[in-house]
Amino acid sequence: MAKLYLVGTGPGSSDYLTEAAIKASESVDVLVGSQRALDLFPGFSGETLLLKARNMDEMMKKSVSLVEDGKNVAILSTGDPGFSGVLKPIMNIRDDLDLEVVPGISSLQLAAARLQISWDDVNLITLHGKGNSDAVLDLLDNGKATIVLPDFRVEKLAQFLIGNGINPERKVTVCERLSYPDERLFTGTVKEVASEEFSYLCVMVIY
Question: Which domain holds residue 154?
Answer without folding.
Answer: 107-206
